[in-house]
Design a protein that fits this description.
3% strand, single chain, globular, mainly alpha
């Protein structure tokens, strides 16, 4: 029963932090330092903290289905509010049309995924091994320290970039206006987050997008959609590496954490989109700095 309660806590933390630019992986690692799972296989948490993100990703699929699904019936030209753009020029087969805007958006997402995919295939295992080591004379892992440091560093970047961006006018206000070059730049920002835990994938990509003139809401949506193939691919890779020999408890913990993260993410994404229409990300910068300092103090002072 205690492990299920832990899974619920992990799910809540994941659901809240996956889409806020404060590092979900970083928070899960820190929670694991306080509430580690017991009676699970070696390496279970390394798989769990990635696969649990599927719940958060599924919330994006549900909330933005009308924008991300490119197929529609050609005879239905009605445009739903917030839905994919439909045109009489969209190619069709057997009465089913493909929204050109949605199709090319997915091509740009694939382009943005390329840097992270290359990194994952070539360096993921090596970096995990390095970060998994503990500091000399301590039980604190290198990964935990990197998380704390990156919380502070990226928090400072948020404050600096938002200050610099105050009086700038966004050049890109719609997903269809994002170029392939911009998509690739956002992809390299995502690579930094993949290599350095605590950076925040959403934080890095949104910051990168803002710097090249993309509006916050547009940057957030592209980041949400970019997470779909990335998280599905990362989860599949982790499960394959871990193996499919789950115990009953591990399956239950994984299922509970994923479902809870899905439900919480549904609420958080709606709240975040409403928030960034009127506010910037400065508050998240201060939060990251404060949390990073607390974590470092926890590890090395108390």
């Amino acid at each position: 029963m205690l492990e299920i309660i832990k899974a619920i806590i992990y799910g809540i933390v994941e659901g809240i932090t996956e889409w806020l630019p404060i590092s979900s992986t970083g928070h899960l690692i820190l929670v694991e330092q306080i509430l580690p799972f017991q009676n699970v296989s070696e390496g279970f948490f390394d798989m769990f903290d990635v696969v649990i993100q599927l719940g958060a990703i599924l919330s994006i699929v549900v909330l933005f289905w009308n924008k991300i699904w490119p197929l529609y019936f050609k005879k239905n030209q009605e445009m739903k509010p917030g839905g994919i753009k439909k045109s009489r020029k969209d190619p069709a087969l057997f009465g089913i049309a493909i929204s050109a805007d949605a199709f090319w958006m997915w091509v740009k997402i694939v382009v943005a995924c390329i840097p992270a995919v290359i990194y994952g295939v070539l360096f993921d295992d090596t970096v995990e091994e390095i970060f998994g080591a503990t500091l000399p004379g301590s039980t604190v892992t290198i990964k935990a320290v990197v998380v704390a440091v990156m919380l502070i560093v990226v928090g400072i970047l948020f404050l600096v970039i938002e200050k610099w961006n105050q009086n700038r006018q966004a050049k890109v206000t719609d997903l269809s206006e994002i170029t392939y070059t911009a998509a690739l730049i956002i992809g390299f920002c995502q690579l930094v987050a993949a290599a350095l835990p605590g950076t925040s994938r959403s934080g890095a990509t949104i910051l990168g997008a803002i710097m090249i003139g993309i509006a916050r809401t547009t940057a957030a949506e592209f980041t949400f959609f970019l997470g779909i193939p990335v998280m599905f691919g990362a989860s599949l890779l982790k499960v394959v590496k871990f193996g499919f020999d789950f115990t009953g408890l591990e399956l239950l913990v994984l299922a509970v954490g994923t479902v809870v993260s899905f439900v919480v993410s549904m609420l958080i994404v709606r709240a975040l989109m409403a928030y960034i229409k009127k506010h910037d990300f400065t508050v998240f910068g201060w939060y990251r700095i404060a949390l990073g300092i607390v974590v470092l103090a926890w590890f090395f002072v108390f």
